[in-house]
Amino acid sequence: MQLYNSLTKTKDTFVPHEEGKVSMYTCGPTVYHFAHIGNLRTYIMEDILDRYLRYSGYEVKRVMNITDVGHLTSDADTGEDKMLKGAKREKKTVMEIAAFYTEKFFEDCRALNIRIPDVIEPATSCIDDFIKVISSLMEKGYAYEAGGNIYFDTSKLSQYYVFHNFEEEDLAVGVREGVEEDGNKKNKADFVLWFTKSKFDDQELKWDSPWGVGYPGWHIECSCISMKHVGEYLDIHCGGIDNAFPHHTNEIAQSEAYLGHKWCNWWMHVLHLNTNSGKMSKSTGEFLTVSLLQSKGYTPMEYRFFCLQSHYRKSLVFSYENMDNAKIAYKKLISKIAALDPSGEIDRETFDAQKASFVKALDNDLNTSLAVTAIYDVLKAKTNGATKRALLADFDRVLALDLLQNADALRDAQKEEAPANKSPLAEKIEAMIEARRMAKKEKNYAEADRIRAELSAMGVTLIDTKDGTTYTVEGEA
Length: 477
Ligand code: AMP
Ligand code: ZN
Hints:
This protein has 16 helices and 16 strands. By secondary structure, the chain is α/β, with parallel strands linked by helices. A five-stranded parallel β-sheet has the order 5-4-3-10-11. Strands 6-7-8-9 form a four-stranded antiparallel β-sheet.
């Protein structure tokens, strides 16, 4: 498998340390709020890697942390503690916030068919591991105490700036803004391993340490959690592109200083999902979550399909128009699959040939958009329905788009539907759509909007296409 490696900036054949086995680490969520659909794009693309490695026969051990302490609003150790901010916002304790949003995160993952990692580890349950590694870094002279905090001394490394040459806008904002420079640091790039004299008097979670009562910095969490579960050699580390610097750079610095050897050979970074107005945010503009999409009539599988249509190393723009196109395409795809006649014998030759082009697409740096094209090629192939369904089931082990499940559900629903008579509800909706069309024609946009809002309150989402308006009703397939 050819996979781009952010460390070498080349696409190379992926080779794990141990034949047939892959250790994979993915930076987990900071559980102070819901995940936005941008965060979830990253998790979906990491899920594709996880699933494809398994599909290719590897035994995968995937570890993910849950950041429930130590992550400040700026990745450069300045700003507010995100968890405290969340707790204050909701007048709850930090642990209540963490438990609530961890659960919500996994609900989103389940809805999006993101495999739950083999190991999930909250940072707050690894304090002893952090202290052990920080103590060793102190002994080895890689860390120092200043102003009550423990810092990593980046000047001790022959090379610190890994991943520093991405496009400016892709990198974390904190470093560039440099809002408050921390006067304790010996070098600008040094980072906190352990906070004691925190500027947060009200810090809720504190632990005893050789350097006083305090709490860990965010970067040390991922290094320690990875080493705790997969040992000294990690095969592949993933995250969104904003994590590349300083987070991943700092992870490499401290892990390799601690271990005394190279730690992780492969780094995969997923580019951002942006809106038309720029970066996706939890605090400004519309807070785009999976449940918001659902309330607007888009299913999680339609969002997953939207993500898979583009490559993980390209940034992607979210708009409702793009989402509508994905929705229409997914629905069409499902109805085509539903129309297949499942009877017949599997034609091995066609199966193998079609599978080979699917594998070729994913072997080429996880080209999911070509893998999606491979689905359409199957549908067009000159073979029977049984072979096509077998291929789709096989592809869906990686794509996880519920292709056959949704097609079968649609078929069942179609069977049950009264064939001739339209329901009174459908008649009413169609009459309102026609009234809206007339209002728009007369440039009475206020009336058109009012009708749309009325339909929306009835659970009806309109989809305007160049061929007219179609609709979906909440809860209906
Ligand atoms: P956080 O919960 O902020 O720690 O972020 C969780 C994951 O989402 C990290 O891997 C981030 O790099 C990633 N991420 C943050 N913003 C975006 C975005 N707009 N698009 C894609 N991934 C993102
Ligand atoms: Zn991390």
